[in-house]
User: What shape does this take?
Amino acid sequence: MIRLRYAVFALLIGFCFVARAQNDNVLDEVVWIVGDEPILKSDIEMQRLAAEYNRTTIDGDPYVVIPEELAIQKLFLHQAALDSIEVSEADVQSFVDNEVQRQINIAGSERNLENYRNMTMKEIRAQVTKMIIDQYKMTRVRDKIIGDYTATPAEVRRYFKNIPQDSLPTIPTQVEIQIINETPFVTPDEVQRVKAELMEYAERVNKGESFAMLARMYSRDGSAVNGGELGFKGRAEFVPEFSSVAFSLTDPKTVSKIVKTEYGYHIIQLIERRGDKINCRHILRTPEISAEETRKTLARLDSIANLVRTDKMTFEQAVYFYSDDKETRNNHGLMAYTSPEDGTLTSRIRMDELHRNYQDVAIVVEQMHVGEISDAFVMRGRNGMNTGAIIKLKNRIPEHKADITDDFQVLTDIVNEKRSEEIVQKWIEEKIKSTYIRIKDDWKRSGYKYNWLKQ
Assistant: This one.
């Protein structure tokens, strides 16, 4: 299977720690030429070191696998130029910001990163930008090659019929869960305490203290490690309440008013505005929920569970009347899961994904039978705050070999991927025939997947 992302992003991941090897390698040379694009010995060595640093297994001789991956990239980029595919810096701005910030975090500071890379931050940013733009171009070429191909039901059934039983994919255990959430009451005194903290931080910033430093010390958000910085984002990438205030800021020296969202309470500072995107910092503080209020919430939820168990109401009715969760409330409480493979939304959640994303729920589900209503428990919600919950295990599908009836979409995805790769591989084979390729004699080795050594 062709993995166009490998060469670009493996390089990015290991960049800050292997760059010195490149800079110390004075003797460099062109070892491949694809079209009019050279592949340097140092390019290959950087990839090898990056894979080694990340403990990425290379299936075969790295001096065969890596240059072939790079050569495939050159083919795609050559086609992108022929097709006049353009990707602007603005299109990839947020990805560049995130990657540069990630490298800074690994190095410890901008100065450390510059020393590691022996480059200025401007040069580092330009290099990362070019790499990500190239990745986008390759992806667009690949999408154009594949077109709108989708496997027909007949193709899927034929694939299922012809594949050996022991070659069918194993589908991990899946569950369908209905949930009722209730957020414990937060006292006015606790809200006032949190607001007073934020007002104090804002005053300290106005007196000259660093907003970023205060965010590192006090923010409850994951962005605290970056000084509260969120990177360049558009309006739709924030919750509405946050977006409204953040995009109203015009002076980087000022601090916003206190903003309440589902995540808690924030103050925001503008860093920079670029077109319709902004980069800002924030400090998030969340109210503490007392043990007594948590106890009351769990007691109410246990009472609701008993009403359902004794047929006083259905679970669906209980969801409608009592659940606080806006995403599941309008879906009869059914939890949904977005597949990382194809982005489709499904109510069938794999147990490994449930453990990864909703561990508190997963632990309870492990002990339940289908149709059972759980006792009330505390879970960590999507917003990072604790909430009370009861769940009903609607269905459990044990681990099994893919079945044409129950797992038709999984098999469709497999056939789509298989056929797409066949289309891409055929295109690569034809592209090689029509492209000028020269390989230095001592790099002409056996083991290449494609016929690069054509006469």
